[in-house]
């Protein structure tokens, strides 16, 4: 794995706001505070009748993130995801005003089931 993939669903109102805040706060924290060479993308995925979000983080110039950095990214994202909606949005509003804060929008993506790509095949 070259980066970090975080896939999840949310059942809260204002979910696009939450997902954008989580993705961008995490990415900008590592880019600006940890000086990590990182990029990220945020997707709203439709797979058959299911919908979920996927956030991908990867090193911009290097081909792979260090395993310790992948762990830190997951932990930071998880920590932020446990934050109260109002507190999260206040933090996002405050941080997004800072110089160098990058805002990545949500891209719609439609996927189809591909049994040949199913991880089950790795174990057969």
TrEMBL record:
InterPro entries in the record: DUF2004
Ranges for domain DUF2004: 2-124
Protein name from the UniProt record: DUF2004 domain-containing protein
Native source organism of the sequence: Ferroplasma acidarmanus Fer1
Lineage: Archaea, Methanobacteriati, Thermoplasmatota, Thermoplasmata, Thermoplasmatales
